[in-house]
Amino acid sequence: MSWGPDTKGLRAGLERTAEQEHSEAIFPTSSFVFANAAEAAARFSGEQPGNIYSRFTNPTVRAFEKRLAAMEGGEAAIATASGMSAILALIMGLLKAGDHIVCSVAVFGTTTSLLDNQLRRFGVETDFVPLTDLGAWEAAIRPETRLLFLETPSNPLTELADIAKLAELAHDHDALLVVDNCFCTPALQRPLELGADLVTHSATKYLDGQGRCVGGAIVGDAERLGKQIFPFLRSAGPTMSPFNAWVFLKGLETLNLRMRAHSEQAMQLAQWLLKQPEVSHVYYPGLPDHPQHALAASQQSGFGGIVSFEVQGGREAAWRVIDATQMLSITANLGDVRTTITHPATTTHGRMSADQRAAAGIKEGLLRVSVGLEDIADIQADLLPGLTGQR
Q1: What are 148-159's pLDDT values in tens digits?
Q2: Which residues are annotated with the PTM N6-(pyridoxal phosphate)lysine (predicted)?
Q3: Which of 60, 143, 156, 187 lies at a CB distance of 3.0 to 4.6 Å from 259, suitable for a disulfide?
């Protein structure tokens, strides 16, 4: 049966128990029992499918994986403890010492830290290139390059990469293209359909949508996930809990509706910010003057809920805007139904060096707003005092 995207968000992956529950069941158990010793041996050897231990087999987690894979258009998914553990599991499953990654400079600060500081100690090297410069991507590729990794739209400047062109480039050099789809989710963008090999998620963000749980996921083909990445997950254990998986299942039910609403709200806020004298620049793919506006319109079905903007006066002015808010949540998380605001240079990208932030375009006057679903007039009114200097 071929379902539409809204139906997949509600129905995909649902496996009812003998109780015939309408909502998905939660299986908060550490282990599963076997009928006899032979069945236990068959399960552990892989000769017989079935649940063994919730570190790597759990029905609730499996339901989330199936639903997300269906929504992304992938064959399979692996759920992880966080978005960062999804990236780590992917790299540890696919790469070895001596391998090379090409990554955009415009990624989440912790992603940069993982690749540049942690993995380098184990012999996996990374070169960082401008997200939108296809020539720089190609020039950075070596014979030992195995992965091209990027976020599109990027955090926090909402730059975009042409996924189809980068996929072609990666495949021409026998490398894989991995896309972090956190900002758009499958509701607005499906990188696998554009040629990407794997998609990563911080489920903590929009997939949950209400800031309740931490989790991550990898989506792609069943063979690569099952034979290369799952063994690392099974052994190392950065897995998703059943309760968190159940929460994320509930989030997926409303994901498509929320992303359309977030996009509409963000567009209104971006247009309003353009009119504020204290704002020197607004970053939002939905604006006609965004450098990749046409690309966003062609490879996304919406422009997303993240708006970043620069204020005149650097860090002092940016902090003044944050501190003057009364309603907005001052937190580095994003993708919530409640609007959040943060200063990337001292939070999400604070562990990067000054040179790395400069290369990524993270300036001291930059603010990132994850536009929630409050009345847009109330969001604007909460930002106005800090912009005008009136409290």
Answers
A1: 999 999 999 999
A2: 205
A3: 187
Say which DSSP state 335 is in. S
Tokens of 62: 């499996």
Amino acid at 222: A
Q: Residue 37: CB partners within 8 Å, gap ≥ 6?
A: none
Specify whether 263 is located in the same domain as 139: no
Residue 324: enclosing H or E segment and its boundaries?
helix 314-324
Please report how the helices 255-274 and 376-388 are oriented relative to each other, as an axis angle in degrees rounded to 10: 40
- How far is the C-alpha of 235 from the C-alpha of 237, rounded, in Å? 6
Q: What pLDDT score does 12 carry?
A: 86
Q: Is 311 helix (H, G, I), strand (E, B) or coil?
A: strand
Residue 129 burial (CB count, 10 A): 22
Q: Which tokens sit at 20?
A: 């015939």
Mean pLDDT of 351-364: 86
Cα gap 252→187, rounded to integer Å: 10
How far is Cα 181 from Cα 55, in angstroms, rounded to an integer?
Answer: 25
194 DSSP 8-state letter: G
Please give the C-alpha separations between residue 379 and each of 179, 375, 389, in angstroms, as whole numbers.
31, 7, 17
Looking at the structure, tell me whether residues 189 and 283 fall in a common domain. no
The amino acid present at 364, given as its one-letter code, is E
State how many domains the chain has: 2
Domain that holds residue 341: 256-388
